[in-house]
Design a protein that fits this description.
Rossmann fold; seven-stranded mixed β-sheet; 11 helices; 7 strands; about 40% helix
Length: about 300
């Protein structure tokens, strides 16, 4: 790990404070860029070939083909957040029991509450820092990580722990932002995103808390230290570090290179049935497809299944 220091206790406190505040934002409609229905259908198409088949539906077929019996008897969720993806894995018959770890006490409390409300008895949520987490050797059939690995500074250690925790034949599934560390967007990416943002009216660019979304730009390290010191800390190394320790058996890049920075915090303004919103998103999705196909842009997000070497 070059040039990146583990998070201090003070930095960990700032991360926890950040996710305490973020909890209120989870009530925003389509809080995340990939939850907007038109975008979600595009992601499904890129992953499964059909706008109606999601990642978790596909995993229900892929994992047994790779030798994993479903539902997985024991699973662990790394950086579980508020547990939404864990509950989806349960609904799709992929996991039976699951232990979830997260650095945020507020997220752990919310995840446990939502699991109880859904009638899921086999989920156990625990406070844990991915940078110092220890897991029992050979304890799990499945390790899952959803939008959490890009928050880990100690990627090498985390992958080693995950590999040892898997029983023989066990698998790791990730759904992850693997774009530039600290969101050091490429020039082509910034031109595309900012060009699209300038087309939008102020109303379309205003967040639910009344802030006009600015054009994207590179942020200094001090910005991340003040807001969330873990954010995208080594995201650009997520795949290389994994591939040094795991064999990737199935991989689906699904873009987000334009859509993610463009829609962050304003996805809820793109309502279904709004002709302008649907036309605009269709054009943005087509642009992202084209720029990735030509190699001008790489995919910032990827879903994959891997096995320890």
């Amino acid at each position: 790990m070059v040039g990146v220091q583990p998070l201090s206790d003070t930095a960990i406190g700032r991360v926890q404070d950040f996710y305490r505040v973020q909890g209120g934002r989870e009530a925003w409609p389509w809080r995340h860029w990939n939850a907007q229905p038109t975008v979600a259908r595009a992601i499904n198409r890129r992953i499964s070939g059909s706008p109606r088949r999601s990642l978790h539906e596909v995993l229900g077929e892929v994992l047994p083909d790779l030798g994993l019996s479903l539902p997985a008897a024991r699973a662990v969720s790394l950086g579980c957040g508020r547990g939404g993806q864990d509950r989806s894995l349960f609904r799709h018959g992929i996991v039976k029991t699951l232990v979830g770890y997260d650095l945020s006490p507020d997220s752990i409390e919310a995840a446990a509450g939502w699991a109880r409300a859904a009638g899921i008895e086999g989920f156990d949520y625990r406070l844990g820092d991915l940078n110092s987490l220890d897991l029992d050797e050979g304890a799990y059939d499945l390790v899952v990580a959803t939008m959490s690995l890009h928050h880990a500074a100690e990627l090498e250690r985390l992958y080693d722990v995950a590999a040892r925790a898997l029983r023989p034949g066990g698998l790791m599934v990730i759904d992850e932002y693997a774009g530039p560390s600290r969101f050091r967007w490429t020039e082509a990416q910034m031109r595309a995103v900012n060009g699209l943002l300038t087309i939008l009216s102020p109303a379309m660019r205003t967040t639910p808390d009344g802030i006009l979304k600015p054009l994207i730009e590179h942020q200094p390290e001090a910005f991340f230290e003040a807001v969330d010191p873990s954010e995208a800390i080594r995201s650009g190394e997520v795949l290389a570090c994994l591939e040094a320790r795991f064999d990737v058996l199935w991989r689906r890049p699904y873009g987000g290179t334009i859509l993610h920075p463009m829609l962050h915090d304003i996805a809820c303004n793109f309502r279904e049935g709004d002709l302008f919103a649907e036309t605009f998103l269709g054009a943005a999705i087509a642009l992202e497809d084209t720029m990735m196909a030509t190699g001008e842009l790489q995919s910032d997000f990827v879903a994959l299944v891997a096995r320890p070497k």
